[in-house]
Amino acid sequence: MIPFEKAYEIVMGSVVRTGTEKIPFTDSAGRILAEDVTSDIDMPPFDKATMDGFACRRLEIHNELEVIETIAAGKKPEKRPGRNQCSRIMTGAPIPEGADCVIIKEETEELPSGRIRFTGTYNKDNISCKGEDVRTGDLLLGAWRKIKPQDIAIMASAGKTTVTVSRMPAVAVISSGDEIVEPQYIPGESQIRNSNSWQLIAQIERAGARGRYYGIARDDEDETLRLVNTAIEENDLVIITGGVSMGDFDFVPGVLEAAGVRLLFTRVAVQPGKPTTFGIHENAAVFGLPGNPVSSFMMFEMLVRPFISAMMSFNWQPEVQIFPLKEDFSRKSAERMALIPVIITSDGCVRPVNYHGSAHITALAEADGIITIPVGALELKGGTLLTFRKI
Ligand code: AMP
Ligand code: MG
User: Fold this and answer.
1) Ligand 1: which of 175, 194, 241 to mutate, judged by most atoms within 8 Å of the beta carbon?
2) Lower CB density within 10 Å: C or N end of the chain?
C-alpha cells in the first residue's frame, strides 16, 4: 500500500500526451487550446461611433450644426464635416475625417431650419479609436487553456476559423462482475445495477475526453482478458471497475499483467479507494478502480481526472475552499487518508453527510464536496480548518 501522494506522483509521471489536431473554431468550446491565438487586425479596425448621434468638431458643439450626410454602420463616410457642420452617425459606423466627437441623439434638438443643436452640458468623445483594444499581432489567447464561449468570440474577431487543440483521449470503460446488470433491467436476487460505467462515462466527458463503453466482463479470466486486450488496442486509456479487491474472483490485476500491462501500484492508502490499481502498456494506460460506485467516483476525481487533463496538456485544478469543521470528527483507524462527503452548512462550516460506506451512492447526491482527513489524524475538533473540494 502506498500513500495517496505517491500514487498521484506515479500517475502524473506516466502521462503520455495525446498530440494535437486542427478543428473548426465553432467546434472548439470546451477543448484545450494547443496554440497561441494572435490578432490579424487592429480592434476596432477603424475609429467608430459608440453612440447614435452627430459627428462633429468638439470646438463647435455649442453652435447650430448643419447635417451634411447620414453614416450608417457598414457605410464609408463620404463628406468631411467642416465649420458648423456635422454628420448624422449610427453606433458602430466609422467616424468621418475631421470629426473628433459624437454628440448623442438624446442630447440634441432639431431646429425648424433643419440644423441641430447640442442641449447637454458635458460631452464625451463617444468614439472608440482604431486599435485601442487590440493591435495587429497582439496575443489574444495563450495555449493550454480550456476554450470558453467568450474565447470563441475572440477567435471569430481575429479570423481564427481553424484552431489547433489537444486531441481528446479515447477512454474505454469496462465493468466487471457476474452480479452486474444494466440499468434497464430489474435486478434479480443477488444482482446489482451497473451504476459505475455510466457515472464514469459522464465523468470522462466532464474531464473533456471521449468515453467508450465496452460492457460488463463476467467474472471469467479469459473473457475479461479479451475485453481488456481490445480496449487497450483501441484507446489511450482503459478504466476497469470491480474485480480489484481480495475476493476469489478479483483477478483484474492478474488479467492486466497477462495483457502486458506493467502494474505500478495495486493498493493506495485512501478510504474509500484502497484497491485502486494503475499500470501502463505501450498502447494505453490502465486504471483498475474499486467496484463500489462512491470509491470509483472519488478515485476518478482524485487520480483519473488530473491524468486525463494532463494527457491534453491541461493543468486542471479542483475548486477548493477552506472551511471550519462544524462538529468534532473521529474515526476508528487513521492508517489511510479519508475522503469524506460533506455539505456546506448555512453558517459556512462543513459537515459530513449521512454516509454508510462506499456503496451508498445517494450520499454523493447530497454532498457539496469532499474533505480529506490525513493519515494519522484520528480525531479533529469542531472548528478545525479543512480544505473542501467541490465535486
Ligand atoms: P468488486 O471490486 O468486484 O469486489 O466489487 C465491489 C462492490 O462493488 C461489490 O459489492 C459490487 O457488487 C459492486 N460493484 C461492482 N461493479 C459495480 C458496478 N459497475 N456498478 C455498481 N456496483 C458495482
Ligand atoms: Mg466483482
Assistant:
1) 241
2) N
- Nearest 5°: CA angle at 247, between 378 and 228? 110
Using one digit for the tens of pLDDT, what is the confidence trace for 215-262? 999 999 999 999 999 999 999 999 999 998 878 778 899 999 999 999
In this structure, which residue's CA is closest to atom 16 in ligand 1? 291
CATH T-level assignment (fold) for domain 320-390: Beta-clip (2.40.340)
Q: Which CATH number fits domain 2-17+168-311: 3.30.300.30, 3.40.980.10, 3.40.50.620, 3.40.50.2000?
A: 3.40.980.10
Q: Record the cell numbers describing residue 373, joined without a space.
A: 482527513
Question: Is pTM, for the whole model, over 0.85?
Answer: yes
How many DSSP H helices and E strands does the chain contain?
8, 28
- Cα separation, 118 vs 120, whole angstroms: 6
Spatial separation of the C-alpha atoms in residues 169 and 290, rounded to whole Å: 22
